[in-house]
Amino acid sequence: MKLVDEFRDPALAQRCAESIARVVTRPWRIMEVCGGQTHSIVRFGIDQLLPSQVTLIHGPGCPVCVTPLEMIDRAIAVAERPSVILCSFGDMLRVPGSRSDLLGAKSRGADVRVVYSPLDALAVARTTPNRQVVFFAVGFETTAPAIAMVAHLALSEGVHNFSLLVSHVLVPPALLAILSDPEGKVDAFIAAGHVCTVMGLDEYRPIAERYKVPIVATGFEPLDLLQGILMCVEQLEGGRHEVENQYARSVAEHGNPEARRMVESVFEVVPRKWRGIGEIPESGLGLRGAYQGLDAEHRFELGDTRAEEPAECHSGRILRGLEKPADCPAFGTRCTPEHPLGATMVSSEGACAAYFAYRRPVA
Prior knowledge:
CATH superfamily of the largest domain: HypD, alpha/beta domain 2
Shape: globular
Mean pLDDT: 93
Number of helices: 18
Oligomer: single chain
Largest sheet: 6 strands, mixed
Strand content: 15-25%
CATH architecture of the largest domain: 3-Layer(aba) Sandwich
């Protein structure tokens, strides 16, 4: 526990915050990309340690939160077929679609099962050959290697009753979309360390150069984040725009080559719609070549569906860094974890859930 305790040392955190205060001379807006980082920031009050010139804004770094309504509706439609077992990570079950969620489908009799690994879903398919088993494949680059491996195993073993409902998204194109947004203003990014552990830093360099923004990959503990913020501020104050690696204990320059090769052999880059943001070119992963036979959208002929967010839900603006959760009039009243309007309130990494847990005013 020594390493974790060290990264949560209040005295060290205070000294790091004081270093930021000594360096900063003007206002800067820094966006953390990962929802796990958002929860650490809000839980430990990292933003409250910073000088007033440094503003942290929350980005679309939660794969559950950015899974579009249409994909939730497709998952429900598949789950409600009598011959199907739908396997999913637990954090997807209460994400609202346009009319219901997967937990509601389960209560109506659908066979929806929580798994802790895509390998668990493949095991269900092996042992239940008379049923179609669909795994709801949601995530960033972090979970893509494991899901690619499962697709490879299913194809090589001839498990014909297994398929994937794929909603994988990629982080760098989302940064481009945020930087291109005329409403937005981001001076630097705290990049998600676990994504960089898989993919490395190479994809971020053209973004930093094109938009003249520092990008620093960090971990998730308070001192990781404070050091990453200090590195961003030092770059901004010095007129630099580089990609730096605070999380060197986990992130290698070029990521994990074996994991990247597995992902590239199974998936190809495709356009993908992000909940609350819209379609972003080249921002998703879809099954390629021989693996397209495992695509549940084609297997079950789900077709094209359209759905709109509830008008009173501000999650789209929150995911784009244009608002914070408390700016939404429904926050904590008409929108709570028990009755969420949007995915940012129900997801374990959603910004609204973090503010509800740690910043909700106490009556």
